[in-house]
Amino acid sequence: MNSDNPNESKNDNILNPSVSDPESESPILDNLPSETQTDISIQDTSEEPNVLSDVISNEPAESAEESVDSDTEIPPLLAKPEEPAETIEESVDSDSEIPPLPARPEEPEVFVEGNSEDESSEISEIEGEALSEIEQIEYELEKLEKEIVQSEIDSEGDFIPETEEEKQTMAEIELLEVAAKKQTKEADKLTKEIIPAPEDADMVETYVPEFQREPGTPEKPADDDEEDPTPKPVEEESEDLQAELERIYETGVGTGLDEWDREILLPVFENRLRMTKNSTKLSYSKLKNQILSFKGISASFQGPIENFRYNKKIVFRFAIKDDSVQLYCALDPESIDNNVYPHKKAKGEHAKATATILTINDENSLRNAGEIITLVAAKIGTAEKEHHVPVAFAERYPINPNGVLFGQESKPPIDGQYDNDDDYAPISGEIINGIIEAKFGKSKLQERKELKGKEVLDDLRQTANTIKAAVALTEPVVYFFDAALNKESSIEYLNIQQLLNDKFLGKIVPQVFFAVAEGSDRIEKFNFLSLEFAVEQANAYPSTRFVLALSCRLLIRDEVFERLLRNAKTLNDNLVLAFDCALLESLGDMGLQKIRRLRNEAGVMIMIDNSENAGMRVLTEYDFEYIRFDSRFYAGDNAKQRSHLEMMTGYARSQNIKTTSINVLTLKEAQIMVERGVDVIQGPAASEPKRIATLAMKGVKKLPLGR
What we know:
Layout: H1 6-15, H2 34-38, H3 52-58, H4 116-154, H5 164-193, H6 239-251, E1 263-265, H7 269-274, H8 278-292, E2 297-302, E3 305-310, E4 313-321, E5 324-329, E6 344-345, E7 356-360, H9 363-380, E8 403-405, H10 421-424, H11 430-440, H12 442-448, H13 454-474, E9 477-485, E10 491-502, E11 506-508, H14 510-517, H15 522-540, E12 546-549, H16 558-567, E13 575-580, H17 581-586, H18 589-602, E14 605-609, H19 616-621, E15 626-630, H20 639-654, E16 658-662, H21 667-675, E17 680-682, H22 693-698
Parallel strand pairs: 1-8, 10-12, 12-13, 13-14, 14-15, 15-16, 16-17
Antiparallel strand pairs: 2-3, 3-4, 4-5, 5-7, 6-7, 9-10, 9-17, 10-11
Helix pairs in contact: 8-9, 11-12, 11-13, 16-18
């Protein structure tokens, strides 16, 4: 409502402040100009009639409720007149959330002089209450606005950029997120690849032998925080990382290279043993087998040492120092004669459990160590097992000629350091040699001198049967490697032969073994054993191909074939599986589909074996990398056989398939096969079978195969 009265306009601004005006959020009445507070009561009565008292006295009090909202607690000021001309207009907009104040009549307001102070006080109270309500409403609005903003922030809906600036900013954010995720992934990978340093063995020792304890001291400390002898697996470790760690420990492959391109090996016990001489490895194997032949003793590696426990107490320790084995035993050093058993007294934390140290570096010290082991076993109250099967521990740790222990990288390599086969050649036949030595040693030969005639023959027969049984018990299945050479006399692949040590028959050669086993369901068991061994070798030697012959029976049943798919995968796709040609052809479409799946899903290469009788379907429909013939089938000067071989090799050459011939005995036979188109020679002419892959690769012959 427009008004010419300036005082009235000021009162309007005070009583009805705008919510959006920042200067009107919290008005203070005491600081307003004096005119605002006093002019209401000192208006010129000559200009405006005084009708306020008449209006208040004539109108009923109930009519005042019409001018205010029903929910507000503000008391009414003026009553609405009954006449239409005197209707009071609302002073507050209907959309405003501020509680309405009393309406103002159209006619000029006048005050009775006697009531001016009371009315002014009443207006001040109303203004104060109105301001309080305004502040409360503004507080509620601000709180509601914050809740709305927070709900939008917490909502799952994605932000959709609209303007060009928003789109550009969003693109930059996405690029930063991708880079952050990549860096996080690389950091996690590096964190997982970090091999935790082994705990100090001195910090986990809790057992103190009786002779070392003070009188009245309990056997175990009060807290009894005894170490669990079972090694705990690394938590949240991926399968690929675990396989890589096992490969490092089992094969001695390092995690980095030094300035001479040598692989840096972790200084754990296994690698320390690996880099020693064969005599040290054999001594270690013999002593470990003797310790484990007693009941209740278990072994576990811990950094640079190997612990042996009985009832969770450490009774023996192994350590490697230079080219000797150090045996720590739970024995009082003063209880044994140093002249008979040369030894040292352990120092530091090791002395709490294993106080005596013996150094094994020759036959005499090895014999003394064996007697001390027996003495300690008797002291702790354990006995030997009735049937102990020895293990060829020395064969597990062939030398890594391209390796160096961590901490010795500064020492330059020495030319020919590992060329001495007696000291560093891979060990084979450890168990058999041990059995033969036990049966035909000096003491046994001395006993046989007293036998005569038939007694000598019977003793030899019995000894032979005993050796067969012992070998069959300790090594029922053994493997041999023979290298196949190409025309450049370099190794094309290593062929793996599985042999069975029978208790009565002795060794069964591969040809007889497969001929017998093909008719039995046990062929699957033996094939999967050989497959597991072949995969281990392929992973250990990534630059060498390995060939393994398998039975076609593995392709028939779906569950067996699925197992074959899972187990045949290697890290470097360097495994070749050979299948008999005639049996494969008899499987028809099923064999064709299974071979394709093997190549595509398992990543293996395929060799068609005994291909001298191959049919056209095998040659034209199957996908394979190698085709192998038996040289004995083409022996002699038969023209038809010679033409057949030349035809087969010519077809294979046109299809980029390599041909190989097995059972080539002499260099002359090898020369003939090469002249007729064969690419690879396998047999005694190329190499002799060896128990160790490195020996097979090292023992290849030079073939004069120039064409």
